[in-house]
Amino acid sequence: MSALITPAQLSEITAQVKILDCTYGTMDARGGYARAHIGDAQFFDIDEVADPLSKYAHTMPAPEVFAAAVGAMGIGNDDMVVVYDQTGIAFAAARVWWMFRVMGHENVKVLNGGLPAWLSAGLPVQDGEAPVPTPKVFAPHYNGTLVRHFEDMEETGDTVIDARGAERFNARVRGADGDVIAAHIPGSKNLPFAMLLDQHGALKDADACAAALYPQIEPGAKLTATCGSGVTACVLALGFYEAGIKDVAVYDGSWTEWSDRNGIR
């Protein structure tokens, strides 16, 4: 089953699902949400629904913290959740898709192409703030197989795949989202997430994802995706999911944590 939903499909069930605007990395994400959001979408900030004790941005929170946050957004275990970005790229939306799956909630989909695809289809948006939802109880069921921590990275035997662009991976440039220095985890392979996107910023179809990804990995390999700070790694995990490999883990701290804790400056 696909983890993606099209604008046309979402338009038919907007009132029956819980929608989250997960935009991150833009100058005015909340302002963009206030100007135009889909249905009664709530705004999900990955830096707020995060571990408050971590020194690294948007670290996965404890299950009870996540549960309290999404419960306050009116999301319960029986709800279907649809996540999207204001940009076309399945960027932080893929991160939130992964977070829900880590918490045992598989009934979550990413709006492919995000808000631009919705608008291009001529579908309506709302402005202002969405109505305050009625809180629900969300009971998390933590799936640790989808998460890697620093201590895991030399013990799992996973094939590590880095979603950043080749220039960052090969230490030619630094990025703004977590590169202490520009380099990569030793032994990791570079599979830039952008290779999975079409010209409109939507994820390519399952066959195209498989054609791009399968030749790069050994059959049956256990995979861990990483990036600068654990966001675009989730786009890579989403692409593998569409290609039929459902259990790709994500190294939450990614290069930011790895380089810091190894004293790389």
Descriptive account of the structure:
The chain is α/β, with parallel strands linked by helices and 265 residues long. It folds into two domains: 4-142, Oxidized Rhodanese, domain 1; 145-261, 3-Layer(aba) Sandwich (Oxidized Rhodanese, domain 1), CATH 3.40.250.10. Helices cover 27% and strands 12% of the residues. The strands form two sheets. It has a five-stranded parallel beta sheet. Strand 9 (223-226), helix 8 and strand 10 form a beta-alpha-beta unit. Helix 4 (92-102) crosses helix 8 (232-242).
End-to-end separation = 43 Å
Radius of gyration: 18 Å
What summary fits the major beta sheet?
5 strands, parallel
CATH fold topology of the largest domain: Oxidized Rhodanese, domain 1
Topology:
Elements: E1 4-5, H1 7-11, E2 18-21, H2 29-35, E3 42-43, H3 63-72, E4 81-84, H4 92-102, E5 108-111, H5 114-120, E6 147-148, E7 159-162, H6 166-169, E8 189-190, H7 206-213, E9 223-226, H8 232-242, E10 249-251, H9 254-261
Parallel strand pairs: 1-5, 2-3, 2-4, 4-5, 6-10, 7-8, 7-9, 9-10
Helix pairs in contact: 4-8
Q: What distinguishing features does this structure have?
A:
single chain, Oxidized Rhodanese, domain 1, alpha/beta, 265 residues, five-stranded parallel β-sheet, globular, 2 domains, 27% helix, 9 helices
